[in-house]
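Q: I'm a student working through a structural biology exercise. My instructor gave each of us a protein and asked us to get a predicted structure, then write a short paragraph describing it. Mine is Phosphoribosylformylglycinamidine synthase subunit PurS. I'm not confident about reading structure output yet, so if you can add a plain explanation after the tokens, that would really help. Here is the sequence I was given:
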Amino acid sequence: MPRIVVDVMPKPEILDPQGKAIVGALPRLGFTAFSGVRQGKRFELTVDGPVTDDVLEQARTAAATMLSNPVIEDVVNVEVLADESTETVEAN
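A: Happy to help. First, here is the predicted structure for Phosphoribosylformylglycinamidine synthase subunit PurS. I'll explain a few features afterward.
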């Protein structure tokens, strides 16, 4: 079954305490190449049937109104997962 992936991130001006905790822990674990982390959310919406333009529009609307809090978060990506691998097809 096809899936649509929605990625949501905190707006840049919003404090991200989870990201700060992660970036603080990385050097202690030996990961020294990173100076910042922002943690977001990923949703996978399973579709019964083909992914049409109408289905993508419904996913975008759900992302903007239900899957994210528009006051503090941005929907940064809505895409169709091409198959069970990590390949994706852009649908923004």
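A: Here are two points you could use in your paragraph. The helical segments are 17-28, 53-67. The radius of gyration is 16 Å. It's a good idea to check both against the output above yourself.
Q: Great, thank you!
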